[in-house]
Amino acid sequence: MCSLDNIIQAVGKEVIRLILGLIGVLVVVVVNALVLTWVERKVSGHMQRRIGPKEVGPYGLIQPFADGLKLLAKELLTPANVDKPLYYLAPVIVFIPVLVSFIVIPFDGFLQVKDINVGILVILAFSSLSVLSILTAGWGSNNKYSLIGATRSVAQNIAYEIPLLLSLLPVIFMANSFSLRDIVEVQRQGWFVWRWQFFAFLIYFISATAETNRTPFDLPEAESELVAGFHTEYSGMRFALFFLAEYTNIFIASAIATTFFLGGYLGPVLPGIVWFFIKTYFLVFVIMWFRWTFPRVRFDQLLNFSWKILIPVAFANLIVTGGILKL
Amino acid sequence: MVKEIAEKIKESISSVEPHITPYELRGYHLFIEATKSNIIEIANFFKRSGFYLADMCCVDYIDYLEIVYLFNNHSKVCRIKVALKVEPDKPSAPTISHIYNIAHWYEREIHEFFGVLFDGHSFMTYLFLHDQIDFYPLRKKQIPVPEEDKKLLNSFKPEEQEDGFFLNLGPQHPSTHGVLRVVVKMNGEYILEAIPVLGYLHRMHEKMAENRTYQQFYPNAARMDYLGALNFNLGYVTTVEKLCGIEVPERAQYIRTITCELNRISSHLLWLGAFLADLGGLTPFLYTFDDREQILDILEAVTGSRLTYSYFRFGGLFNDVDDDFVDGVKKFINRLRSRFGMYERLVTGNVIFINRVKDIGVMDYTYPIRYGCSGPVIRSLGIPFDIRKHEPYGVYDRIDFKVAQGTNGDNMDRYLVRIQEMEISLDIIEKALKDMPSGPINAEKLPKKLKPPKGDIYHTVESPRGELGVYIVSDESDIPYRMRWRVPSYSNLMTFPELARGTLIADAIATLGSYDLVIPEIDR
User: Fold this and answer.
1) In a domain, B325, yes or no
2) CB–CB of B352 and A218 under 8 A?
């Protein structure tokens, strides 16, 4: 007899938890991307006085599946003279950091794949990797637009990672922990966004929009300048992977904002996971709102904004927070 | 003004004999016959006196080729035709491209169409044509292109230059609005050199005109500028009417004015959406299209088409407007007026938008003269040059309206001028609707076959993009001997290489968007 208990004992509880967690993460990633494609289409539609998709399924709910099927069925075009290993590798490595980041996000009090005591560092370390895949894609594509897009992306990510980190540090000071769950639990006394960290929240949110390459900071794929930027030469499922990663990145950025500033899964009446998703999707909606409202900033303005405004303000905020806590 | 200029030019260049011509008949005030030895002196004189080169074209009279230079002044209308006779075999003429930058392109065009070699011109390559065409298309007799000429025409090959990073913006690119190709030499994100390459939509309308009667050519006009189609219709129709001496009834004139202004607004609305899309804001495009749709519906009910109209007729109109039209237009005026506030709040005040367009692509006062650009592009500089005011056609002389003006000549001003122009157009429509008389809409006793008297005529109207000129040479037959279209986008685009040099690529694309280019109009 081979019962479930025996298996669990043989491989250890922790490993089973991890495997189940990873499956859960994959499901969340895919479902999230499907939901966000639909939401983005509907949001943009209503902002542009259209109604968005409505033909496939009720309210066009099946539309993302139709899109996915189309992308799956499409021929994978490989342009001549691409750097083959890099070109094939880029859509794959765009996905790894995305998956890892999910492990430490607390969806609810107990719904977390693994609570690591340096959780936020894991997320920041891995999300920096996504720029590597963009660079790989841009370089490997043998296309001038892709290359410009990739170089822009590198400069942009370097510039915006600093204020991103600096805006999270004061919260870590106040919570006295790197663990995401601890940070949420501390907020039982009040959300950090209302406890002196409003500016940090703003800086984080702006930087996160830039990190995820969304309008008004979507320079790596600025379509009126660079056609489609770093993924100009990608088609079919390879393009879909970039697409999936972009939506997942938006979700992660919003999830971190929720966790750090908006009290994560905390909230009255409803279960924690519902609160978590409500807050996260509200921030996702705001990012979409940006996209369909603002024009794009220019490259030098983008860098100036980070180096001359965001970083000094974030630094000042950090020093003031640190000073007050010490006193 | 005319007599003064005639005196002055006689004084400064002794070999020149200016003739005063009837402006109502010919469309120009002065006629000067130049020779190869004094054409540079004449061009220099006009540049000194603040004249711009409105148009430059060539006519093949079989015995000789005549190169026609048309000069005009921005402050007071004084159109001057300078004609230079050139021998028909192995023709050559001195270049004036070092005096007027726009002549650079005009001379390339004349070279590939007529085979006239301009001495001293540095860049005699193809402008519109491609290397499969082995004769000069606009010559009356078929003349093959000689080998050495072909080599010269083919000499532009940016892809073979090794040094530098070249980027082809276009012919397929999201922000070139059609099929413009700009070869850009870059250093990082900065543009070192931008060379527009034209001809991807070249259809040789000027040659088509020489094979059709005046009536048959009429639909072609709308195909050149599909956004300002009615204005192009009007430009062509009024030129031919002026040439034949046809009187147009009052009511028809009013309706022409109203429909043309509606067309101008629809063109500006499309530009507004496209310009903001170039800057990365995609949503306004849908909003402006929503407004534009109302105009298209109104015009469709009257003209029968939505984009490439053929509404006017020689001496009148295709059909009369009814009360529904008047009501629809009034409703539309109210609607658009209420929308301007929204555009103001959403776009004009947006800090990202302001940072992207303010002080970008700044022109100075030499541009209008050197490049002959027109329309909103130079009104943004504060030059109140508007054909509707200066050489009124239709009923513009009976309607009181002001001319939109900017101050700096940057992208922001070009945006503001167009927004103002839409408001002014609404005023014009409102006033014209109030004054519109009843009566016939077509001229009586019009011959079936139009055979205009011998001679040439240059006539201009203000299209949404600027000065649209039609130059027709008639030989008393029912087919034009030569028809030349002076299109506004052409000279506006010519300023791009100079404005783009040294700027970021994003700024260059914003500047390109601010011109409101319509490529089929440039390529013809």
Assistant:
1) yes
2) no
Alpha-carbon Rg for chain A in angstroms = 21
Interface of A with B in 46-85 (CB under 8 A): 47-50
CA distances from B382 to A70, B73, B368, B378 (A): 53, 15, 11, 7
Do B300 and B407 reside in the same domain of the chain?
yes
Report yes or no: B86 and B66 within 8 Å, Cβ to Cβ: yes
* Cα B155 from Cα B298, distance rounded (Å): 50
Its pTM stands at: 0.87
Domain assignment of residue B494, yes or no: no
Which of B348, B352, B503 should one mutate to test binding to chain A, selecting the residue with the greatest count of A CBs within 10 A?
B352
Nearest to B96 by CA among B45, B155, B152, B29: B45
The helix-helix angle for A198-211 and A272-291 (nearest 10°) equals 60
CA A27, CA A16: separation in Å to the nearest integer?
A: 17
Work out how many domains chain B is built from and give that number. Answer: 2
In the predicted model, what is the mean pLDDT of chain B? 86
pLDDT at residue A10 is higher than 70:
no
Indicate if the pLDDT at residue A215 is higher than 80: no
B352 touching chain A per CB within 8 A: yes
Give a yes or no: residue B509 inside a domain: no
Domain boundary residue among B425, B457, B489?
A: B457
Burial class (CB in 10 A: 0-12, 13-18, 19+), B247: exposed
A53 band by pLDDT with thresholds 50, 70 and 90: confident
Cβ contact (<8 Å) for A296 and B175?
no
Q: Evaluate the CA torsion angle B176, B181, B187, B193 in order and state its sign.
A: negative
Is residue B93 helix, strand or coil? strand
Q: For residue B319, what is the DSSP state?
A: S
* B351 and B230 in a common domain: yes
Given this model, what pLDDT does residue B92 score? 86
Helix (H, G, I), strand (E, B) or coil at A239: helix
Q: Domain containing B85: what range?
A: 2-156
Nearest C-alpha in B relative to A290 = B281
Q: Exposure of A273 by Cβ count < 10 A (0-12 exposed, 13-18 middle, 19+ buried)?
A: middle
CATH number at residue B386: 1.10.645.10
- Judge whether B70 lies within some domain: yes
